Amino acid sequence: MKKTYEYRVYPNNKTKATINQILEACSWFYNYLLEQFRKRDQRGDKQPTKIELQDSLIQIKNGNPLPKQVQFHILQDVARRVCKTWQDYKRLKQLDNKKKHPNTYKTTFQYNEKKIVTVQQKLSQKVRGSQNWKDTKLQLTKKWEKVVNQAKHETYRVVNELVKKYDEIAVENLKVKEMIEKGNLAKFIQRARWAILFQVISDKASIAGRRLVRVNPKNTTQMCSCCGELSKEKLNLAQRAFECWNCNYKDDRDINSAKNIYKLGFDKSLLSEVGGKTFWNVL
Fold first, then answer.
1. Structural domain harbouring 153
2. Does residue 1 sit within a domain?
3. Does the N-terminal or the C-terminal CB of the chain have fewer CB atoms within 10 Å?
4. Which are the contacts of 140, defined by CB distance < 8 A and separation ≥ 6?
């Protein structure tokens, strides 16, 4: 696992003054360039490209009161950001004028899964061992590698966000392997990669000194997070809302389940320490 370390800088007063001068100069320069873009747009003139803008930086710097500490590559970075900001602004403006599309989308996995199926069909039509078969096989391998890397990236993104925001994390102690073997949702469970997600959470929480708790998933969906009563009729996957028959509490079933997991996980009478600051709680 690759790690990134962040260190806090403690500059002296002279360095602080220099940094503030550079930041103020960059802010002024950013607003100056943005104003030039606006004036050109109002006149209907063609906007300068990133290269043209960088070539004119020397004249702009000499003709304006900028501190000597502001080096040329810093101004180049400001110019790049202004160009990107303006391009994004114009693109969004064009999108607003276009015909609206339905608010639906395909997930990345579904999109790439269809591509994999297409390549697999092509591979089945090739003569095994031929050069075309080898090329198609390599193409299929790259498609699968891309899917795995995208899933890994999403897993680490979610885990890093959780570890940075929360000191305590509770998850269900799901037996993923048994769920895949017995359940009819094996494909969706494999796509979610719960086992990998839980392992990464465990590793990251241990490194960051966060408290991790696993709870028994029994009745977390069927139990009311407000009064603790179980629902009289078992909720199926099609029912997305939870309503308690006892206290009339209503909520999304996933939110209600998350509240139950949190309560079960951080009830001090149920916790058991395993090592460091990671706790495992199997009820």
1. 107-165
2. no
3. N
4. 116, 119, 120, 123
